[in-house]
Structure formats: structure tokens, C-alpha cells
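=== RUN LOG ===
request id: a7f3
mode: sequence -> structure
chains: 1
length: 137
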Amino acid sequence: MLKNKNFLIAISVAAWLFFSIFPWQAWFQGFDIFRFVIGLFIYLVPGVLTFLLITDNKNISPRALLGGFAVAIFVTGLLGLSARLFHLNFMFIRWGFALWGVAAITFLFLQKEKITFQFERNGTKKDFRSRVQARQF
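=== RESULT ===
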């Protein structure tokens, strides 16, 4: 881990702003799946980080990904609704989403608790089989 946390925050924020605002998609015209994965990642990151900041659970799990997706849809809808009500263009939504990501990344690095990855089941196959067999009569 780097000793200077501010440098890591600055690099992460700069990378986030580059990928969320700069039109990088033209560079990868032949790689549609790669562009889709990067775009999905850009869409999910602020939602997942906001979901982790809201909840007490600090594990990145399928639950956090799904909750982050719901938060990202909600915030995108709020940005779109506010742009529609105040007659703003798409750049408001784009910059609003980018600044939301900057805030989420900054709060991620400034919090004291560590965020971990958890993508494995808590039970074993034997536990799953015994539960299935117990349900059958």
C-alpha cells in the first residue's frame, strides 16, 4: 500500500474522470465486448461504492453489485429528471455522473474501514445437498 494516500486518490480520480468524460470508445471500434465491459464498469462503480458507503456491510459481493446497480439506476434517473425539469442538456447528466463517481471514490479512500471481496458461498455442497434432501418428502 502506498504511504501517500492523496497520490492514490488523485490517480484514481484522474482515471475515473478520463474514462467517464473523455470519448475513448472510438479507440476500440473493433472490440465491442471490451467497450461494453468498460462501460458497464463505469456505470457500476459509483453505485456500488455508494451502496457500500450507505450500508454497514463492507464486502463487495453479488448483493453489493446488485444494490449498486439499483443505486446507479436511481441516481441516473434523478439526474435525467432534473435535467428535464430545468431544460438542461446531456452534458449535465454526464458531468453529474462523473462528479458523483469522484465523490464516491474519494469517500472510499477516506474511510477507515477496509472493503473486501466476497464471492464464495458460505456453505459447502454437502450442506446444500442436505438442505435439498430435507425439503424432499
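=== NOTES ===
The chain has a mean pLDDT of 83.
Helices lie at 5-21, 32-54, 62-85, 90-110, 125-135.
=== END ===
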